[in-house]
Design a protein that fits this description.
single chain, 289 residues, alpha+beta, Immunoglobulin-like, 5-stranded mixed beta sheet, 7 helices, 10 strands
């Protein structure tokens, strides 16, 4: 096998694993884009494995290994690495994705390269011990991050008041003139991410969380939201969800925020669940005169 062919095969295989890991990170089980990303990852991995099969001289792999076990291996490694990366943001999902990925990778690696070199007894012994460690560590990580990821930060008091005082809008009990439906997803996006209102208009914002993790809608000025995003990165900050400009929703929940846009300008939207703002979960409301 030449250096060039080895390099290409390696790029494809590890690139495929990275694609699958990225899909896991961004909601593979709820978002079409992530499912497509994972599919590309599987294809990349299979092509890289096929190159290995064509170019190997010491041990040949059959198509069953490439197509069958290769898919299991790529998904397992993608799940394991993606789940590890995303534990702080989505412990509820990572707590089972990481062990599942580990088991899939273990079985696939044994079947593809080691079944003729090691006994089933050795596999079982290693498998039981290693899986116990992975499951135990995953449970500890889940316990450490579950409260932080489920909504332990505060947008009331100073944060909520700041956004409310300076944004060209205000919470209100006035009767709304129309309803806007806003969806939140695990792709870290609002939909629609940009929409319009008119100065003086009262809008009933119906917010639906379509994802499998907690999301929120926070309204404010761009300056206030950016400042709060920086503050959220401080490990010492302690936060709870409340405030007239905040709506926090668990997976599958929906809620309503009624808002009067008093002045023309731009109101910004953001989600401050751990890592979501930096991942691009933000948007704007253009308030026309």
């Amino acid at each position: 096998m030449s250096f060039a062919s080895t390099h290409v095969a390696t790029l494809l295989r590890y690139g495929g694993i990275s694609f699958i890991a990225g899909a896991v990170n961004h909601g593979m089980f709820s978002e079409t884009r992530s499912a497509i990303t994972a599919s590309f990852g599987v294809v990349f991995y299979l092509v890289g494995s096929w190159l290995d099969m064509r170019l190997q001289t010491d041990e040949k792999m059959g198509w069953a290994d490439v197509l069958g076990v290769g898919i299991v291996s790529s998904v397992g490694l993608g799940f394991f690495t993606g789940g590890l990366q995303h534990f702080p943001d989505s412990p509820e999902r990572s707590v089972w994705v990481v062990p599942l990925g580990f088991v899939l990778s273990l079985v696939a690696m044994y079947w593809m390269a080691w079944r003729s070199r090691t006994s089933v007894k050795s596999l079982l012994l290693y498998g039981v011990l290693s899986c116990t460690v992975v499951v135990g560590a995953s449970l500890l990580a889940w316990d450490a991050w579950k409260d932080q990821a489920s909504g332990g930060h505060d947008h009331g008091a100073a944060h909520g008041a700041s956004a409310h005082d300076h944004a060209p809008s205000t919470s209100t009990n006035a009767a709304p003139t129309r309803t806007v439906t806003l969806t939140l997803g695990d792709d870290m996006r609002f939909s629609p991410a940009n929409w319009q209102a008119t100065a003086g208009e009262t809008v009933r914002i119906e917010v639906v969380n379509l994802g499998k993790m907690r999301h929120e809608l926070v309204l404010g000025t761009e300056e206030d939201l950016k400042a709060h995003a920086q503050e959220m990165k401080q490990a010492s900050s302690s936060h709870k969800h409340h405030g007239p400009n905040v709506l926090s929703l668990a997976a599958g929940e929906r809620g309503v925020l009624t808002w009067t846009f008093t002045d023309a300008g731009v109101v910004h939207m953001a989600c401050f669940e751990l890592g979501h703002y930096d991942a691009g979960m933000r948007g704007t409301i253009s308030v026309l005169p």
